[in-house]
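To the wet lab folks,

You asked to see what we're planning to order before we commit. Fair enough. Below is the target structure as tokens, and below that is the sequence we designed to fit it. If anything looks off to you, flag it before the synthesis order goes out.
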């Protein structure tokens, strides 16, 4: 294995100069930098990150804890975090908890301060705020990302996105299209983190004088299968519904599947709106109308906030960064309402 000293010998510089070039530190002339990089390329040198961590007393990684890597949103978000981290000289360690609180705690205990300098945790139904507070109190920088209620900040540094507004935008869109018999498929339990999206939707239709009865709402998990099952149940018991709001894109895909199962044409017979705007949303047929969240911005803010936490003093206040508002993306899964399917 090629060493830093060997690279320095080939480039005709000191090992410290090679280190400065690779880390982007110190004042190194352009000609020297080119010689070092050429030596690195010709020798196939790769830095030993573990050794660097031992020498510097800290790892060159940050960790991202997600609830389910099977959900396409999390790989897309992880990609944006990785890009933001690499720009600042850090590598990303992704920890998948499989929606298991015990696995989340095990990851936090393992990566906090040992394998990573800090941890970004995605807001999810099971996220353990008390455990995260304890971790921060032990000196491990922690940032909670995609917090859905900026008006009620958590006791942790966080990046928030106003997902209540996502429900508002979805409701306004369907109301403009003339829909008055509405349903909702929620990708969490009633007390879960999707409740604010549903509340924004409910408050908006109520202000418009439209009723959303309790039996027009189904709760479940943030999956395509749960969305499909919920839509089958919803449309079987309330066939007059002409539009369904799903609190995330995956359940919305399930609603589209249920509509096809039942022989309903989207959007002629049923309009469907989701939330998030993952890549599959525009790849589906019909393409999904959805409320896009600022994934790239939220990821960059989370990395910046975490690095600020790494240099913060113990006991500093828990800051909150708010990403820009969600925006409606209209595609072919929504259209003007028919009077009723009955």
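Sequence we intend to order:
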């Amino acid at each position: 294995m090629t060493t830093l000293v060997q690279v320095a010998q080939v480039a005709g510089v000191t090992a410290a100069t090679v280190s400065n070039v690779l880390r982007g530190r110190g004042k190194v002339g352009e000609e020297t930098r080119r010689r070092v990089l050429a030596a690195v390329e010709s020798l196939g040198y790769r830095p030993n990150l573990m050794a660097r961590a031992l020498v510097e007393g800290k790892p060159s990684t940050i960790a991202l804890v997600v609830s389910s890597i099977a959900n396409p949103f999390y790989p897309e978000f992880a990609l944006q975090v990785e890009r933001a981290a690499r720009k600042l000289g850090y590598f990303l360690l992704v920890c998948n908890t499989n929606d298991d609180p015990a696995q989340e705690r095990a990851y936090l205990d393992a990566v906090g301060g040992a394998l990573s300098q800090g941890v970004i945790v995605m807001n999810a139904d099971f996220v353990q705020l008390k455990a995260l507070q304890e971790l921060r109190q032990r000196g491990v920088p922690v940032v909670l990302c995609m917090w859905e209620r900026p008006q009620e900040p958590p006791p942790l540094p966080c990046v928030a996105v106003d997902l209540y507004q996502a429900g508002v935008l979805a409701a306004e869109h369907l109301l403009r299209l003339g829909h008055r018999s509405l349903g909702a498929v929620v990708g969490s339990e009633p007390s879960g983190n999707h409740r604010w999206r549903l509340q924004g939707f409910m408050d908006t239709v109520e202000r418009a004088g439209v009723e959303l009865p309790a039996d027009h709402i189904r709760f479940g998990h943030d999956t395509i299968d749960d969305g499909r099952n919920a839509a089958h149940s919803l449309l079987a018991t309330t066939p007059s519904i002409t539009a369904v709001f799903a609190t995330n894109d995956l359940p919305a895909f399930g609603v589209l599947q249920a509509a096809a199962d039942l022989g309903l044409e989207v959007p002629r017979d049923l309009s469907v709106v989701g939330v998030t705007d993952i890549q599959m949303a525009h790849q589906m047929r019909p393409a999904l109308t959805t409320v896009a969240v600022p994934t790239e911005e939220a990821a960059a803010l989370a990395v910046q906030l975490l690095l600020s936490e790494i240099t913060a003093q113990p006991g500093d206040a828990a800051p909150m960064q708010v990403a820009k508002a969600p925006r409606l993306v209209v595609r072919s899964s929504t259209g003007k309402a028919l009077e009723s399917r009955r």
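Structural context that might help your review: DSSP finds 13 helices and twelve strands in the chain. Residues 295-311 form the longest helix (17 residues).

Thanks,
Computational group
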